[in-house]
Design brief:
By secondary structure, the chain is α/β, with parallel strands linked by helices. The chain has helices spanning 37-51, 63-73, 87-99, 115-122, 140-150, 170-179, 235-241, 252-263, 265-268, 270-288, 309-318, 339-354; strands at 24-25, 82-85, 105-109, 126-130, 154-158, 183-187, 211-216, 229-233, 292-293, 300-304, 321-322, 332-335. α1 (37-51) runs antiparallel to α8 (252-263), α2 (63-73) runs parallel beside α8 and α3 packs across α4 (115-122). The structure holds pyridoxal-5'-phosphate (PLP). Pyridoxal-5'-phosphate is lined by residues 29, 87-89, 113, 158, 162, 187, 189, 216, 218-219, 224, 229.
Length: 360
Amino acid sequence: MTLPIRADLRGREPYGAPQLAAAVRLNTNENPYPPSARLIAAISAAVAEAAATLNRYPDRDVAELRKDLADYLGHGLTSRHVWAANGSNEVIQQLLQAFGGPGRVALGFEPSYSMHPIIARTTGTTWVGEGRGEDFALSADRAVAAVRGLRPDLVFLTSPNNPTGAALPVKVIEAVCDVAPGMVVVDEAYAEFARDDTVGALTLLPGHQRLVVTRTMSKAFAMAGVRLGYLAADPAVIDALLLVRLPYHLSAVTQAVARAALVNAGELLEAVAALRMERDATVAWLRGRGLAAADSDANFVLFGEFADRRAVWQGLLDHGVLVREVGPAGWLRVSIGTPAEMARFRRALSDVMARGGGGV
Ligand SMILES: *Cc1c(COP(=O)(O)O)cnc(C)c1O
């Protein structure tokens, strides 16, 4: 049977990180630490309170949660500068609905987050993927030349970049803001994991009305299951998003859980320092084994290069370790797990390499 699906969607592949039941799952950059018993109790109490009024629609404008998120971000931001939705993927979708669409163009620098082009296309926005330079770096010259040449309606910059790992120098973001004719979206899903001297895009918000910085509670915050993403931008940007968001898009339960989690931000972010150390140790270990490993400001490491990365991916899975086959040919990405999970990853990879798997 042939369904009358839109011509531009016909034959496309859905987003597809495999959700396999491996013993050690290091493939979607989740935080490996589940909530504490204390936090589970706090979240349960918040849900019980929200449940008492579930006959009513939730706060359509998400006022209290936006205030809490603004306080968390700092930088003098207020609730008027912050917007929230079901994961930063929905935030990105709303941005493309408001500022992209048929006849409009979005630009990104690849390899980068695979959902940017997918969401662009589903909103009818033309996607243009430009390359990066040596070691997956993006120079101001290259970025500015691409923006000047294409004059896109939106530019996507991912910092720290997924799947390659490094954050962008803030000078590159600023240079793009200075020449971009449209919106500049900086996806900072991994901001909390960045190395200490990293300056983020929030510092550029004053004076850049078309800059948008997106964040998420899915990674450092260890709340991927909640589906809560947010952005910081000029209040005029949020006024534009109100035109495209569905009414009552963020459930009362989601708002309550996210607020309860934010009260406990200190506890949730405690693991970030340990994950950063584990990440740096993983990079060093991989390089010590004679492999290439990209510098990382995130909670994952891109490593290679393998003549047959599929064989290495499968070999690791045979040892119960699921990593991600993503990024440039020959490379794999491993999310940072607990010390025990990383030890298992190292043993599995050593074994796969000793057997000559993947042409290493
Ligand atoms: C994981 C990730 C997201 C998060 O998406 P959510 O919808 O908030 O879970 C956004 N951007 C990038 C680059 C990511 O890697």
